[in-house]
Specification:
The chain has 118 residues and is mainly α. Helix content is 52%, strand content 3%. The protein is built from five helices and two strands, in the order E-H-E-H-H-H-H. Strand 1, helix 1 (10-15) and strand 2 form a beta-alpha-beta unit.
Length: 118
């Protein structure tokens, strides 16, 4: 069984027979990755393509201050978590990076509403 860890290539790998997703971006919005897989397996190519484009674009975030960024993102969703990590300084998450995460969070919530995801 093979699991993909790259959002940008997830849909392609599912279509080629991979079973799922195991990337760090599941710390941000796991619902979107499961929906990409479900849409492909159900033959809903329009939904799959839209979500594929979103998770591919969102995967740019994993290069920016991970895991501080993931902890900050989770805090936007109400998880009581600090942003201290062993590997990155919280100071790496400066103003514009926070704003980008807040915008991704807002956009993710719009997608979740559109597709009735929890």
């Amino acid at each position: 069984m093979i699991f993909n860890a790259n959002g940008a290539t997830l849909a392609e790998s599912i279509r080629m027979g991979c079973e799922g997703y195991s990337g760090v971006m599941a710390n941000f919005h796991p619902e979107l990755y499961s929906q990409v897989i479900e849409a492909i397996k159900n033959g809903d190519e329009e939904k799959a393509k839209f979500l594929e484009n979103m998770v591919g674009f969102f995967s740019l975030t994993e290069c920016q201050c991970y895991p501080v960024s993931a902890k900050y993102y989770m805090s936007l969703d109400g998880v009581d978590i600090g942003i201290m990590t062993r590997t990155r300084s919280p100071e790496d998450l400066f103003g514009s990076r926070k704003k980008e995460l807040e915008q991704m969070y807002a956009f993710t919530n719009e997608i979740k509403k559109q597709y009735n995801l929890r």
